[in-house]
Amino acid sequence: MEILRSIAEWKKYRSSLIQESRDQSLGFVATMGALHEGHLSLVRLSMKENTRTAASIFLNPTQFNDPKDLENYPDTFSEDVRKLEAIGCDALFAPAYEELYPDNFRYKLMETEYSKILCGAHRPGHFDGVLTVVMKLLNIVQADRAYFGEKDWQQLYLIRGMADAFFMNTEIVGGPLIREPDGLAMSSRNLLLTADERKKAPLFNRIISGPGTIAEKEKALEDAGFTVDYIEAREGRILAAVFLGKVRLIDNVKG
Ligand code: PAF
Predict the structure, then answer these.
(1) What share of the chain is helix, strand, coil (3-state, %, to 5)?
(2) pTM greater than 0.85
(3) Is 39 considered catalytic here?
(4) Which of 57, 63, 97, 252 has most ligand 1 atoms within 8 Å of CB, for mutation?
(5) Which residue ranges have their beta carbon within 6 Å of ligand 1?
(6) Cβ proximity of 158 and 130 under 8 Å
């Protein structure tokens, strides 16, 4: 797997693909590292649908409204590289902050409605950071398709909207939410749960997908020891975010 650290290196790699063959397609999976089966399933989906697949690892500081959350984010770069190599990913783009933010985030991309509810209401500025970095990455990578997980339902919806609103050339593809055998949605943040919290965490999915009204589910979550950030029914889904100790978990199910 080729590891490209700068935009100049990436551009060289991208042109070499075009020179190799005009018929090939590039799929792209953006990540912040701490890779798990959810990310790898997106890479595999991209490998099925494209002749070449690239991933990126960039822990994007502009989408963290809480500096402690950023500090605690797991850093597993060497392991991530091994995992990507093992499944046959072709390239990894892993730029430094200065490469992606020469403007130091003076310029930002903002959506004014859907980004203000659900996660956006509880994490001010979060989606400005997400949309800005995804726009930068897609502009640099020039992929034919980019893959984002349905676990981050609101993020996927907003990225699709951005790609449409700005007539971007990359097709945005959603990949299914991947769960642990006990039902917990896979997330890099699961690594931060204590052993006791990890045992309790699957109750989150069990409660939101079980019977009852939204108010009843909210009460059941609080009774089980979660602190509910939000739980809402929208467009045929139930979307929820909770804290378990210091760790914020999100999930969504058909509702
Ligand atoms: O879903 C994520 O890991 C991040 O929000 C993304 C899309 C890589 C942007 O930093």
Answers:
(1) 45, 20, 30
(2) yes
(3) yes
(4) 63
(5) 30-32, 60, 63, 130, 133-134, 152, 155
(6) yes
